[in-house]
Amino acid sequence: MKCNCGFVNQEGSKYCQHCGIKLSIKKSILSRDNISSTGTIAGAGAKGVSVAPLAYMNGKEDSKVASRFTITPLEDGTWFCPLCGEKNTGNGCRGCDFTR
After folding, report:
1. Helices (H), the chain
2. What is the CA angle 12-17-23, rounded to 5?
């Protein structure tokens, strides 16, 4: 994902690793906003068929996703967390459980 600052972030980043700003993510037709209160997606197929397991990840997978990131530190050695946007020094993020 390319940030407004021009830095190209890794897929799955929620925040830019160069400036720390929240990245705007394009919504899928399978986003939470498009799922009805019954857990199905209108027009997705047969009545009562749910694609909920494929539709939305609730954020609990962040620790698994974090292991896929390669951190790109800034010139001064600090780095922005791709999951919460916190500016850090060292190996661990102060804002979440991410460890590089």
Report:
1. 52-55, 62-66
2. 55
